[in-house]
Amino acid sequence: MTTLTTPASTAATSTWTLDAAHSTAEFSAKHMMITTVRGRIADVRGTLVLDAARPERSTVEVTLAAASVDTRSEQRDGHLRSPDFLDVERFPAITFTSRRVEGARLAEGTAFRIVGDLTIRDVTREVTLDATYEGQGKDPWGGERVSFSATTKIDRRDFGLTWNAALETGGVLVSNDVRITLEVQAVRAG
After folding, report:
1. In this structure, is residue 3 part of a structural domain?
2. Cα atoms in the Cβ-side hemisphere of radius 13 Å centred on 154
3. Is position 8 within any domain?
4. Model confidence over 105-154: pLDDT tens digits?
5. Do the Cβ atoms of 40 and 26 come closer than 8 Å?
């Protein structure tokens, strides 16, 4: 999924690198119309450019390694990596690039929106992340960190993820709606 923008800093513009060890990109979908199954994309990389003076001018670019999908089931993960779903051999990356930030302020707990382009399987669609600025601080090693959370919902069919199986009792095996939840921490570069 993706990440966010806004933040706090004394310099007008600053660049931040996502800390993959302290960031998560998770997703969930219904299985058999009755159970929510959750997973994550483990390999998350990205850059935030934060504009403290004008947070709405901040930007974010994120890349997720599709092959790092993890649902705690090897069989399901293999199916998700296959051409039926992510087709990781042909489309190794899922990307998000912001277009604009709406309603951002430099206050912890501020809710705002990030509108950007999500690309899955070489299909790009505009999505909106409902984001929250979680805060900023110094780590024990002298580095500066910033944190955000965000959620969105997509229809997987919009990205060419159309595989499904009809259920004998009606409905389908995998829901079309996929919820995405992000918890992101980034380290100030240089």
Report:
1. no
2. 26
3. no
4. 878 999 999 999 999 999 999 999 999 999 999 999 899 999 999 999 99
5. yes
